[in-house]
Amino acid sequence: MSTQAESEVKPKRKPRRLRSANSHPVSSAPPNRGWRITPWLFMVVPLALLITFTYIPVANMFWYSFTDWNGISKVKEPVGLGNYVEFFTRPELYRVFLVSLYYLAGAVVQMVLALYFATMLSFSTVFKNLFKGILFFPYLINGVAISFVFLFFFQPGGTLDSVLGLIGISEDSLPLWLGNPDLINISLAGTSVWRYMGLNFVLFLGAIQSIPAQIYEAADLDGASRWNQFRYIIAPSIKPIISLSFILAISGSLAVFEIPFIMTDGANGSTTFVIQTIKTAFNSNKVGLASAMAVILLFIVLLVTWVQRLLVPDEKVDLT
Amino acid sequence: MTRILTALGKYTSLILASLVALIPLVVMVFTALKSSQEYATSGPLDPPSSPTLSNFVTAFNDADMASAFLNTTLILIVSVAGTIIIGTMTAYALDRFEFRFKKLIFALFLLATLVPGVTTQVATFQVINGLGLYNTRMAPIALFLGTDIVSIYIFVQFMRSVPISLDEAATMDGANHFTIYRKIVFPLLKPAIATVIIIKGIAIYNEFYIPFLYMPSRDLGVISTSLQRFKGPLGTQWEILSAGALIVIIPTLIVFLALQKYIYNGLSAGAVK
Questions:
Q1: In the predicted structure, residue B273 carries a pLDDT above the cut 50
Q2: N or C: chain B end with fewer CB closer than 10 Å?
């Protein structure tokens, strides 16, 4: 190993050419077998970054989660499972899971809408690109700007109230969309649907459009209805992207942060898991407890991913 | 008859959805173009009677948008360029070489895609702080470079379609590995590079969490954090806040209109890893 490594560090043209000629009688073999250090030279920086910014934080997070560290002091007293027990026994902490359910429900609505519009636009449509662009554009907008748009949208006498006024609902009978604790999470989850529906829609549409046109033609000749075309041609071929989107929706609904943080700062019962974690760590200086929460979230996300892999193995869709 | 009804239902739903997507934004445009007197006396849905751009000027100056755009652009260029170099080099090493621990390294990168970035910030904060990067532009740059595994995947995927015979021909001509990477592989990865520029560019332009957490200093505001801070002092002066939001949205709209096709394709490539 070491002698080979040395010979690579000082590259000499002749032996290299010889070696590569010898070791590649068949052109499909990787051309660099036997070169031990070159790949590592290409990967030193990426690996260092991966370890520094992913694996060290994850390892530290586990460690902190078993201590009472406040983020500043030099001592970290071990507290065993204390932080985990605290999280699951304090209702004001674990109730953030309930808030996630609103976003999860929103994500389901969002995927149904995306699937509907993707199917619609996959058939010939007037102004197809215009509709596609309009439905997709919200996804590209900066989250802070979206928060401003919807703070104005939901404020008393704002956009929503005025639109409802147009169809004859008087403003006095309308609730405070962001002031009412029963409504706030629905309003915020609705904002989230507005923001992310376009992404699901474009992904589904791309998957549907990759189905060869002859298959639809054959189905048309056989007299298949639109519904049957959807059920037997479109649905099976986009199953992988739907299942991927669903996983992203579950982990996404636990990781909601921007919209409720900027719009309401977690007030009125709109605190999400991530807002709670950040506030526990940086406002209450309970890094140990916050780390335990982050570990719990990480486990849930890994569990969901694992269950998905179990239920929907990567199957190749073959329509031909 | 059913065909007509189906079409009617389809276009009704499309128009309705378009209205839902557009009305909140159009109302912002109306509001931003009104003077403060007109804002106080008109409803949100009334178009401005005498449009004025003065709110945009006020918002641009008061929210320090010039320095925000400069900071965002700086961070964006360095991070995207770095991601491309790092991602293509990793892909080259992983796809073109056989070496010990190759499977392990693949697994390390794969596992990292499953770790949601938001969860680890509690501990990442200590790493950034320990490296002395807190409250510098290097903090977001380091994180955008170090935690972007999806780009590496896009490059590895694309790399597989670059024929290996090209590498071999170059080796025969005496090119070393770095030359092969730089002169042959890198140029052939252009479509993947375009995809990464788009995905990464949009993500960094819109990123709020990382700059918010790691660059609280006022002169280090990026567009997201500057806009968010702008909300505080103004409270309910919606004609100015709307203008501020639109200043951030308009560049996105221009890029979207110019690069539509690439953006759609790029997102599909990014999502299906």
A1: no
A2: N
Complex ipTM value:
0.91
Residues of chain B found within 8 Å of residue A46, distances taken between Cβ atoms: 86-87, 89-90, 152
**Cβ contacts (< 8 Å) between B228 and chain A: which residues?**
144, 147, 262
Contact at CB, A140 and B96, closer than 8 angstroms:
no
Tens digit of pLDDT for each residue in A178-210? Answer: 988 889 999 999 999 999 999 999 989 988 888
What are the backbone angles phi and psi of residue A26, rounded to the nearest 5°?
Answer: -110, 130
Residue-range domains of chain B with CATH: 2-52 (no CATH), 62-271 (1.10.3720.10)
Backbone angles phi, psi at A195, to 5 degrees: -75, -45
Nearest residue of chain B to residue A117 (CA atoms): B14
Sign of the alpha-carbon dihedral angle for A304, A238, B253, A110: negative
Q: Select from A306, A291, A304 the least CA-distant residue to A254.
A: A304
The CATH number of domain A91-311, selected from 3.30.1640.10, 3.40.190.10, 3.30.360.10, 1.10.3720.10: 1.10.3720.10
Looking up tokens 């819109």 gives B206
B21/A194 Cβ within 8 A: yes
Q: Domain extents for chain A?
A: 2-79, 91-311
In whole angstroms, give the CA distance from residue A242 to residue A136: 17
Q: What residue in A sits closest to B249 (Cα-Cα)? A: A141
Q: String of b and e for B142-175 (b: at least 16 CB within 10 Å)?
A: bbbbbbbbbbbbbbbebbeebebeebbebbeeeb
CA angle B257, B258, B264 (to 5 degrees): 75
